[in-house]
Specification:
7-stranded parallel sheet; about 30% helix; 10 helices; alpha/beta; about 300 residues
Length: about 300
């Protein structure tokens, strides 16, 4: 809930229901920086939403720092190039942090016991557009679980987004106790208006078989630490996380101790709009996920 104190708009974390706002204008003065999700907020995987460039320009004019934080299972330079191609002006943002970059760095640098035991032969589960994740990694990439010592999971290679083709591979990998690195914790994404499963759904299936998984990206803390470092460590209360997914964006912000704004026109839109009472529907959804967004917008509007 928002309240006015001595002329300043403040947020109350303990509020039972997030305020539904028409745009960011009323909330922006309360924050110095924004950590902004991509899919469902900035674009749909194919094109930038028409209202986004204007909003980013207004934030830039207001002196706000905007950093993109995405669960894209690709390296940051690759995603930045794609963003520019579909209409995200790089001048309007500080840069981008991705789950793919986080996963790549852990596979390359092996900073902990899990990643130190990956071996040197990797089975990659993912489509052609994720092949750049292999570049520069010290692994031989193989085609079967029997030849592998680890798995890099960037999602489904099937054109329909199905994970069915991986079922036999996952069973065989679990029998060999291969460690999996998941480069995208999202379970589903809206791509061009169609729901498609992501790498997180494959990792869930693998864990259900007893497989071991290292998860990289939202809602886990590593990407938020990197994002705050990129923003020069601002006061957490002055950083607003914006996203459309309760399970990753809202939970991740809460775990990092950062206030969050929920975009309800994204992945949860159909569920929320089944009722005419939008506020309580958002509140029930947030409560079910154990989070408390400070406010909600249907779209990323100024």
């Amino acid at each position: 809930m928002l309240r006015m104190v001595e002329g300043t708009l403040l947020w109350q974390k303990q509020a039972p229901m997030p305020a539904i706002l028409p745009g960011l204008a009323a909330l922006a003065p309360t924050f110095d920086a924004l950590i902004l999700d991509l899919w469902g907020v900035v674009h749909d995987g194919q094109q930038v939403f028409a209202w986004v460039p204007g909003t980013l320009r207004r934030l830039k004019e207001a002196g706000k720092r905007v950093l993109l934080l995405s669960n894209a299972p690709r390296r940051e330079a690759v995603v930045a190039r794609r963003n520019a191609e579909i209409g995200v002006d790089p001048v309007l943002v500080e840069g981008i942090v991705t789950s793919g970059e986080e996963a790549w760095r852990h596979m390359a640098e092996r900073p902990d016991a899990f990643h130190q035991k990956l071996g040197d032969r990797c089975l990659h589960l993912g489509g052609p557009r994720d092949r750049s994740m292999r570049e520069g990694l010290p692994y031989s990439f193989v085609d079967t679980p029997e030849a592998a010592t680890c798995i890099l999971n960037t999602g489904s290679a099937e054109t329909d987004g199905s994970t069915a083709a991986q079922e036999d591979v996952l069973r065989r990998a679990a029998e060999r106790d291969l460690p999996m690195v998941c480069a995208n914790p999202d379970r589903v994404v809206i791509a061009g208006g169609r729901r498609e499963p992501c790498a997180g759904a494959i990792a869930d299936a693998y864990e259900a078989l007893g497989g071991r998984v290292a998860w990289h990206g939202k809602p886990f803390p590593g990407v938020y630490a990197r994002a705050l470092t990129r923003l020069d460590h601002p006061a957490p209360a002055r950083v607003l996380c914006i996203g459309d997914a309760m399970e990753t964006d809202m939970k991740g912000a809460a775990a990092a101790g950062l206030p969050a704004l929920f975009i309800f026109g994204g992945i949860h839109h159909a569920d929320i709009m089944r009722t005419s009472d939008i506020g309580p529907a958002i509140d029930r959804l947030a409560t079910a996920h154990g989070v408390a967004p400070v406010a909600a917008l249907e779209r990323f509007l100024w």
